[in-house]
UniProtKB/TrEMBL annotation:
Organism of origin: Chitinophaga cymbidii
Pathway(s) this gene product operates in, as recorded in its UniProt entry: Isoprenoid biosynthesis; isopentenyl diphosphate biosynthesis via DXP pathway; isopentenyl diphosphate from 1-deoxy-D-xylulose 5-phosphate: step 3/6
Positions annotated as active site in the UniProt record: 8, 133
Xref: Gene3D superfamilies: 3.30.230.10, GHMP kinase, C-terminal domain
PANTHER family attached to this UniProt entry: 4-DIPHOSPHOCYTIDYL-2-C-METHYL-D-ERYTHRITOL KINASE, CHLOROPLASTIC (PTHR43527:SF2)
Protein name stated in the entry: 4-diphosphocytidyl-2-C-methyl-D-erythritol kinase
Listed InterPro entries: GHMP_kinase_C_dom, GHMP_kinase_C_sf, GHMP_kinase_N_dom, IspE, Ribosomal_Su5_D2-typ_SF, Ribsml_uS5_D2-typ_fold_subgr
């Protein structure tokens, strides 16, 4: 059985306060886009994880796909050994949630393939153990997120009338480092005050708190954002803690642009 874990983008991201448990309370809007990895699971006689495509740093045992399997296996011992193969296409360390999506989709795939009959709400609880934005990929529809990112409310937002350009400059931004440079606090414009149906108003109102910190350290990311606006984007921002920058263009109006060597650009027309 094969599924295709997709990425997400953040539309606005505000870090409100640091909690006693070490996490941060935040507010953001998650929106799914069809930039995808591929995840296949086969029943076998021993647990195997293999990977192709973009190289994933770190030990395979720390991969969220493996951790998702172990999480379900602990509560569902009838789960057989599997061979999981992940083909990685979504850039890592980019703020696009690729690893989180892989973990969440592993939960969904194992639940469906082996008839575990785990309801969606329980899958979200499992996903929250894997990571703060993993529960989003269980729902995988536009939502307003708060808490660590695991508290979600549906948001009526359809951007199919626009085209998206995602550019990853090959810079890996460490999320812990980015958080350590921030001063949490109330936003100038809370996300609940944004008119989500008026995309043209977002440029001056919809902000990502990480941008000041990350763009100061990595000017190339700011240059990508400026280039997008200079070429007709109606909105552009870094996604999550970076380093990918996402631009929204009028439908079928993404220009042909030249990027520096090592950059990767993805279009969602």
């Amino acid at each position: 059985m094969i599924l295709f874990p997709n990425c997400k983008i953040n539309l606005g991201l505000h870090i409100l306060r640091k909690r006693e448990d070490g996490f941060h309370d935040l507010e953001t809007v998650f929106y799914p886009l069809p930039l995808e990895d591929a995840l296949e699971v086969l029943t076998t006689t021993e647990m195997i994880f293999s990977q192709s495509g973009i190289e994933i740093p770190g030990d395979a045992t720390e991969n969220l796909c493996v951790k998702a399997y172990q999480l379900l296996k602990a509560d569902h011992p009838q789960l057989p050994p599997v061979h999981m193969h992940l083909h990685k296409h979504i850039p890592t360390g980019a703020g696009l949630g690729g690893g989180s999506s892989d973990g969440a989709f592993t939960l969904k795939l194992l639940n469906e393939k082996y008839n575990l009959n785990i309801p969606a709400q329980k899958l979200e609880q499992y996903a929250a153990v894997l990571g703060s934005d993993c529960p989003f990929f269980i729902r995988n529809t536009a939502c307003f997120a708060s808490g660590r990112g695991e508290i979600m409310e549906p948001l009526q937002l359809d951007l199919s009338g626009y085209s998206f350009l995602l550019v990853h400059p090959g810079i890996h931004v460490n999320t812990g480092w980015a958080f350590s440079r921030l001063t949490p606090g109330p936003p100038a414009i809370p996300l609940r005050e944004i008119d989500w149906q008026d995309v043209l108003s977002w440029k001056d109102r919809l902000t990502n708190d990480f941008e000041d910190v990350v763009l100061a350290a990595y000017p190339a990311i700011g240059a990508i954002k400026r280039k997008m606006y200079d070429t007709g984007a109606v909105y552009a921002a870094m996604s999550g803690s970076g380093s990918a920058v996402v631009a929204i263009y009028p439908k079928n109006s993404i220009p042909v642009l030249q990027w520096e060597e090592g950059y990767r650009a993805f279009e969602v027309p």
